[in-house]
Specification:
alpha/beta, Rossmann fold, four-stranded parallel beta sheet, two-stranded parallel sheet, 6 strands, 33% helix, 13% strand
Length: 146
């Protein structure tokens, strides 16, 4: 497994069994590039035409973070041009994704309506945390106090 981040320390990555690489190397080597970032001015447009062009034609891009991190126009060109093998998207520039949006008919894509995180397991965690918060408050022992 390889990883890149503007803040990733090679030693920390190694301690997790991950090889830290540069951004260019990540896009050139990875079979699947997954995006896990919050949207900020630093991350907006982080994946553009140059990054997509650097990917192997057998590689996939997965974005479950925020739509504007990936340049949608460049992604559509890469999908239609066969530059990449495909994309899995759970986040878009405009949500909900409009009915006539070009991503809806793009080849080799899997689209979900920004609920890819919804699983039985995640709901079990959410509900348990809500109950813990309420019962802690009622006992006078609030949890997760900031």
């Amino acid at each position: 497994m390889i990883a890149w981040s503007q803040n990733l320390q090679a030693g920390h990555a190694a301690s997790l069994g991950v090889e830290a690489v540069g951004k260019e190397e990540l896009f050139a080597r990875a079979d699947v590039v997954t995006v896990h970032l919050k949207l900020s001015e630093r991350s907006r447009g982080l994946v553009r035409a140059a990054e997509l062009a650097a990917m192997k034609p057998t590689a996939y891009l997965v974005n479950t973070s925020r739509g504007p991190i990936v340049d949608e126009t460049a992604l559509l060109q890469a999908l239609h041009g066969g530059t990449i093998a495909g994309a899995g998207l759970d986040a878009y520039d405009v949500e909900p994704l409009p009915a006539g949006h070009p991503l809806r008919s793009a080849p080799r894509t899997v689209l979900t309506p920004h609920l890819g995180y919804v699983t039985t397991g995640s709901y079990e965690v959410f509900f348990r945390e809500v109950v813990d918060g309420i019962t802690g408050y009622l006992r006078g022992e609030p949890v997760n106090v900031i």
